[in-house]
């Protein structure tokens, strides 16, 4: 049976568990997209075990439990998988002030990493 029609979880993290799978992280209530990140097997397993969004940081090359140092943790309410079993959606309840590591002028984190839009003149504008 193909991945599209099976009830079996068939995520492919590769033979060493290091293949990265994209994860769209959304607020469980509003469905606002908060983060696009990646998981390897270790990060996925830790997310399921702890109940908090854990990713693989490509820039730091290490496990990254979102909010562990900032307090802005993301409690995972549900995990969705696409038909080909090669991407995920984490539906989360934010536990802090925001989800983004970037800060607003007042020092608080942006609620979502998607806080700017591209204008016609190719400049970026903060979404109010």
Q: What tags apply to this protein structure?
A:
two-stranded antiparallel sheet; mainly beta; four-stranded mixed sheet; 128 residues; Ubiquitin-like (UB roll); 1 helix
Give a description of the structure:
- The structure is a single chain.
- By secondary structure, the chain is mostly beta strands.
- The protein has a domain of 79 residues: Roll (Ubiquitin-like (UB roll)), CATH 3.10.20.
- Helices cover 8% and strands 34% of the residues.
- It has 1 helix and 8 strands; from the N terminus they run ββαββββββ.
- A 4-stranded mixed sheet has the order 2-1-6-5, with helices on one face. A two-stranded antiparallel sheet has the order 3-4. Strands 7-8 form a two-stranded antiparallel sheet.
- The longest helix has 10 residues.
- It is globular, with a radius of gyration of 16 Å.
- The model has no long low-confidence stretch (mean pLDDT 94).
Mean pLDDT: 94
Could you spell the SSE succession in H and E letters?
A: EEHEEEEEE
- CATH-defined fold name of the domain at 18-96: Ubiquitin-like (UB roll)
Radius of gyration: 16 Å
Classify the helix fraction into a percent range. under 10%
Task: Supply the number of helical segments.
Answer: 1
> What's the CATH superfamily of the domain at 18-96, by name?
Phosphoribosyl-AMP cyclohydrolase
What is the second-level CATH architecture of the domain at 18-96?
Roll
Task: Classify the beta-strand content into a percent band.
Answer: 25-35%
Structural class assignment: mainly beta
Spatial ordering of strands, largest sheet? 2-1-6-5
The total count of strands amounts to: 8
N-to-C span: 47 Å
Coarse morphology: globular
